[in-house]
Specification:
The protein is of the alpha+beta class. It contains six helices and 26 strands. It has a six-stranded antiparallel beta barrel. A four-stranded antiparallel sheet has the order 18-19-20-21, with helices on both faces. Strands 1-3-10 form a three-stranded antiparallel sheet, with no helix packed on it. The chain starts with a helix and ends with a strand.
Length: 394
């Protein structure tokens, strides 16, 4: 039998050996990680934000390699999965891949309704070709790119934002095409359809040729004096070729500090009796807006009101504007259907009867952020309730 002291001594040495092997495996795994060719930085405009205030965040990337990099994706995401920032880095585009170049050719169409009583459909580009190419952003050695955006500092965003960048190193044998000077022709061509008339008012033709040299900062195709021009990146390659490139990804977390209100959402829930569900904060009105079953609770430090309908979209819209238009009625022959506009005018709201085709009218009320509670209570008095951010219904 092994003496007890000897047994403990052997166990101690075995533990040290195992612990050492685990550490060695970890170091080897760390050493095998590919060296990153890019630097990623996330910076807020302030160290902390008050609840539901607008914050500014900036994402910066820098090519620290000695060769160009193809940017495949940049993203900033909250803990709840909400995308805060996701600039386009690759655009998949219809084109014609020819023997020695790539051709992008398209026409810009607008709809002419004539006497038809509806709004025209949005103008659109229609592209020719049976191939798909990837238009790419190229980041030269030492070059930096940055993007910034505003976000609403809501509790549900969490305590961290996750930034990520995906990229590929441009290997010497990879064929990348570069845009030449675009050709724009203004012309008018009509195409009749059952629902109206479409007109082609311009054509755009861009030829991409094999790139011989790369220029720092040359990211997008410039189309002068043509505001309808689509966004096109300066470099292109077949989608299959880009998919075959080895890719790398870099991730970084950044802490987000949001200060809680003295009268917080938990206090508002207790006051209105709704323990869970959707909610938002009306910043100017200083109210918590809590969704109930078919109703909305608007809760302040000294008040708790309940109105029919869903007021959360309206509250969120008012957080982002100085005034917001809400439609009370439309396509009515009366200029002030049911006297709604006169009623809201007496309460101090700005109203407007907008003429529509066929001699009909649309009734609009302009709501300021501080008027949220007064407006939704007045809606209820008129037998109306919110249906989305900009429409009321009976």
């Amino acid at each position: 039998m092994i003496p007890r002291k000897t047994f403990y001594f052997i166990c101690s040495w075995l533990w040290l050996v195992v612990y050492g092997l685990i550490g060695l495996i970890g170091l080897m795994a760390e050493a095998k990680k590919p060296e990153q060719s890019i630097k990623l930085d996330v910076a807020f405009a302030a160290e902390q934000f008050t609840a539901w205030s607008k914050g500014n965040v900036r994402v910066t990337i820098e090519n620290t390699d000695r060769i160009p990099l193809l940017l495949l994706g940049v993203q900033l995401m909250a803990e709840n999965g909400e995308i805060i920032l996701a600039p386009a880095c690759v655009i998949q585009h219809v084109a014609t891949i020819r023997k020695n170049d790539i051709l992008l050719e398209g026409a810009y169409w607008v709809e002419d309704l004539g006497p038809i009583a509806r709004a025209p459909r949005p103008p659109a580009w229609r592209w020719e070709g049976g191939d798909t190419v990837a238009l790419c952003l190229l980041l030269m050695p030492g070059e930096r790119m940055e993007w910034s955006t505003l976000f609403r500092a809501r509790y549900d965003l969490g305590e961290q934002l996750l930034a990520s960048v995906e990229y590929a190193r441009l290997t010497p044998d990879f064929l990348l095409y570069q845009a030449t000077t675009p050709e724009v022709k203004r012309k008018k061509h009509e195409a009749e359809t059952f629902f109206g008339k479409w007109e082609s008012v311009a054509t755009l033709r861009v030829t991409y040729q094999p790139a011989q040299t790369f220029v720092k900062g040359n990211h997008e195709v410039a189309v002068p004096d043509f505001h309808e021009a689509p966004r096109l990146f300066n470099y292109a390659t077949p989608v299959a070729a880009l998919a075959a490139l080895p890719k790398q990804k870099l991730r970084q977390r950044q802490e987000l500090h949001i200060l809680h209100e003295p009268f917080d959402i938990a206090d508002a829930r207790k006051a209105c009796g709704v323990a869970s569900g959707d909610y938002t904060r009306a910043v100017a009105a200083q109210l918590w807006v809590v969704a109930g079953t078919g109703v909305t609770h608007l809760v302040g430090i000294a008040s708790c009101d309940c109105v029919a309908g869903d007021c959360l979209p309206l509250a969120n819209a008012l957080n982002d504007t100085e005034k917001h238009a809400v439609t009370l009625f439309s396509w009515q022959q009366e200029r002030d259907a049911h006297g709604h506009l006169a009623y809201f005018s007496k309460l101090g709201f700005t109203t407007e009867a907008r003429e529509q085709k066929g001699g009909n009218y649309e009734g609009i009320v302009i709501v300021a952020p501080s008027q949220l509670l007064a407006f939704v209570k007045a809606l209820q008095q008129r037998g109306l309730k919110m249906d989305g951010a900009a429409q009321a219904k009976s």
